[in-house]
Amino acid sequence: MLVVDRARTTWRDSHFSELPAEIEAGDLLVLNNTRVFPARLIGKREPSGGRVELLLIRQQFVDESFGRHSGATELRNESCVWETLARPARRLERGAIVTFGDGRLRARVLEKLGGGERVVLFECDGKFDELLEEYGQTPLPPYIKRRDESARDEDRARYQTIYAARRGAIAAPTAGLHFTPRVLEKLRARGAGIAEVTLHVGYGTFAPVRADDLSVHSVPPEQCEVSAEAAAAVNDAKKNGRRVIAVGTTTVRALESFADETGVVRPGTGESSLTIIPSYRFRVVDALLTNFHLPRSSLLVLIGAFAGCDLALAAYRHAVEARYRFYSYGDCMLIS
What we know:
Oligomer: single chain
Structural class: alpha/beta
Radius of gyration: 21 Å
CATH class of the largest domain: Alpha Beta
CATH superfamily of the largest domain: QueA-like
């Protein structure tokens, strides 16, 4: 764990096991309790039998977790519509059929969007969620390669935080992967508070920044919820001069999305499309625990906004020289 001090513009090497020593009594750690679901489906295109991968990005009709609805009421209970990322997508025209497993789950292309994105209607012989658990795979980042099924089964357990509770993410909030029950116990023993919010990590979080001008860059909306209990805990900490420490960039976006101009967090449910760039004024978060991120990503831009671009880049250069591990299963940094 790299510990970065914004006020002193310094950093030092540490270990995540030492996190409780960096926490003061009264500090509030806020966790993102989203749970990754098996959103990666491997099927075959009919009638050719060609291999097709679909990554579920966004459900388009009823989302029971958040009560969202987009008008597709005519669909049967065993059917649902999703925006997906298809690979390869070249031959997936409107009307194309993809089947999965023994054929109890089928997808029909309804619409072509930009790039490899396709809107598909899933038709099921049974319940969609149950078939997804049976046929779906953990949507690991593309730089993580798996050659055998046993490793994929292990990822279902490992690519998940220990406090994951609310199903809906297609990627883990990776800063939380470091936590163990023992670390949480030590944090509570130090007098730290723990609160939970939900931001279902979507494809947009990891989509590359393609705009040269960050002012025109935007992060696609992701489902988000801040409970009344979490909002009260955050507001009490801010009122009494205690630090709010976000675990992960998604937690930052959840908290800042529901804060007013004075920094008061309002409970609510909805979609967060907050895009944080260096001109952003943080209203809630005082410190951030985060992993090391890919170049040209919204996540790295957020780190630069929070730590200051020069300090963030200097800390990253040190991390490279010190051989820190980057990305999802990598090391972390605490920015305070």
